[in-house]
Amino acid sequence: MTKPEWTKNYQPGVPAEIDLPDEPLSAMFARAARKGGKRVALEFFGATTTYRELADQVDRAAAGLAALGVGPGDRVAIVLPNCPQHVVAFYAVLRLGAVVVEHNPLYTATELATMFADHGARVAIAWDVAVPKLPTVEHVVAVNLLEAFPTVKRLALHLPVPKLAATRKRLHAKAPGTTPWKQLMAHKPIRNWAEPTASDLAVVQYTSGTIGAFKGAMLTHRNLYANALQGAAWMKDAKDGKETIYAVLPMFHAFGMTLYLTFGMLKRARIVLFPTFDVDMVLDAAKKRPPTVYCAVPPIYEKTARRAIERKVSLKSARFCISGAMKLTDPVVELWESVSGGLLVEGYGLTETAPVALGNPFWPTRRTGTIGVPFPSTLMRVVDPDDPTREVAQGEEGELLLKGPQVFSGYWNAPEETAKALLPDGWLRTGDVVVVDADGFTTIVDRLKEIIVTGGFNVSPSEVEHVLVEHPDISDVAVVGLQTESGEQVAAAVVLREGAHLDVAAVRAWAKERLAAYKVPRSFVEVEELPKSMLGKVLRKQVRESITSAS
Predict the structure, then answer these.
(1) Domain count of the fold of the chain
(2) Do the domain assignments include residue 26?
(3) b vs e for 223-240, b when ≥16 Cβ sit within 10 Å of the residue's Cβ?
(4) Is 311 among the domain residues?
């Protein structure tokens, strides 16, 4: 069992343990709102919401949801980009003791239908643009993003200018047969509700996870609250009520959810919301309200730094910068740290760990290329993948196991998959093969799982294959991840039906109708047959090598 030896001064002042929360996130939020008062909680294209106003909006939204029949244990689907309504919806659902189920609004109707069929939510709060893709549910609350814009900008978007009209169309669409968000917010603030407990389920977060299929990771209030406290301990110099956090990662993703919706609220930070990452939009905001916390993935760091240099925009305010989802390289670190005001460190986590479990210290001891050391109150083991009861010696490769207050309680409606991921004694099998050096720093060297990580999102090869094999010209297909300088890219080797020819553009367009854009393969290679084992299993390593040699 590996635990940081804090006498090594990985990061002075960071405790080995945290006090575990014994209250729900709704209680944490109420306290943050009370202490935050007139301080700005949210900023969206210049429009601001104070903590006091945010609390009132949460109370009104909770009352509106209660009027729709939402109560303890009910799942409520949220299908929104980053916006003020997303924050309000998240805490309104939790306040009722109900369960948040986050969804990417860019998912296709097929993807959303699969998830909705699994979690069974009767109420959805959705971006009006995404409403046509939703399956039938009892109540849909439609959110018009333009209503959160400052009045001047909202009015400007209605000017008879083609470019503005196109922008307005991307941000808003009519959603007949739904309940407008305004109507939900017209209720009087709720005063009495069933307070959830720390052990109650708070969120079902869908992930390709450690098993390669869409499953809903069940995260309790304690899991999420504990991870926010662990993050606060790690970023020990971040000051309550003083930090400005840029929300450039999506809040429907576990990384963004914890950074902004839990850690951000815990620290009573000003959270500047971006519905999508646009580097010039970010830098325009930085000129007016510089960020102090800027957490992202390597491609975003690189793009932001290069553009900041071109535009001569200072990012020296950014002191706390954590990278995740893919390997962080020395050139990206050097570039970012040349324009920012602090260290850029890499962390590691899974949706199943709410999500952060390891991290590099904000201290000269950090080690680029590694995923660092365990967070406070987090234990790890490195074991023989074929016998997880046997730990391997330090310096040997093995599967990473994790245990801590942030580790999930299992997958929704999936006991068999839960048993594969969680050992009887509570240890989580990550599926990642790692090696730990003599100083205790951990490096990922391989994956037992075959998940592709692209742009910070997990892609299940089997899911993409199941879609592509339905194409009339494709008889067999194997999907793999190809490593590039900017991370992994989805690629496919296809066996065509007799007489068919490969029209890559047509196949990609067909796939985009059925898969989120980031899941659609960037490259296709035609092969006569796929390499398979004697048992018929596709040999992905050989597929990857053949695609690489053909490109």
Answers:
(1) 1
(2) no
(3) bbbbbbbbbbbbbeebee
(4) no
